[in-house]
Fold this protein.
Amino acid sequence: MAFTSLLMVKERGVATLTLNRPAKSNAFDETLTAEFLEALIACERDPEVRCIVVTGAGRHFCAGQDLGVILERYDRSEVVDYRRHLLGGYNRMVLQLRSLAKPVIAAVNGAAAGAGLGLACACDLRFASEEARFRMAFIGIGLAPDSATSFFLPRLVGLGRATEMAFTNQPVEANTALQYGLVNRVFPAADLLPRTREFAQMLAQAPTRAIGLTKRAFERALAVDTAGALDYEAFLQQVAGGTVDHREGVRAFLEKRSPVYQGR
Ligand code: LHQ
């Protein structure tokens, strides 16, 4: 796939998507937004892709919206419709990541700010380099949270910490983010991608359908009561029970061997 602002490399079941506008700290303009959405859809459709890693080129992960683009539009006296901008861009991106029936890991190599923080939070796991830092950014430019940061951040770090991050706009360093539960693992900068890829290769061998169903279960469980969660689990388990990988898992266990999962 020929992209201009995104690199996509497929290797042994893992697709690595690298946001590639390093001079702009990988901020999203229209091209990067469209290419990232297209890449996510391609990953969803490609049966060879069984895990996705998202990272940034250069010093940072993603600085959110490209503010230069916004200012240019103001300077042309354009009315910038933020609601439409969000609905057509970041909202689609977050929903696409959450509904993608495959594991997605954010390898946060530097700053994740604004919609870039939203992007990291919408991934299933966050691995961070010691250089990573997390910043709400919105208050810094007189905006309210978007890109589902208001949804994910309180759930990941708790309401008090999320509020402090939002009100103060202070960056949270990698090790503090680990202590907050905002990231799953922290690695020295040079180890981030190799260790993330190693982990991603392991997930690419997992029963992919069951992983997709697990995402759906957790997603639903955020919004229902216990009875509703139980009902939905029963529905999803019926689907999981019909997969080839489930049978392989049971057979391998009883035959005392490692399972070979095909993602079916
Ligand atoms: C950037 C950006 C950037 C362009 C760094 N744009 N160039 C939705 C709806 C509609 C409107 C608005 O937004 C949204 C969603 C959002 O995402 S709002 C939040 C937007 N993001 C921010 O406010 C973050 C702004 N950036 C930063 O806080 C810092 O630049 C970070 C923490 C990302 C990096 O800090 P440093 O390591 O100190 O690097 P730097 O500030 O020098 O940035 C490096 C370059 O990247 C620099 O360019 P230059 O030509 O001077 O080297 C920056 O201008 C550029 N850059 N963020 N969002």
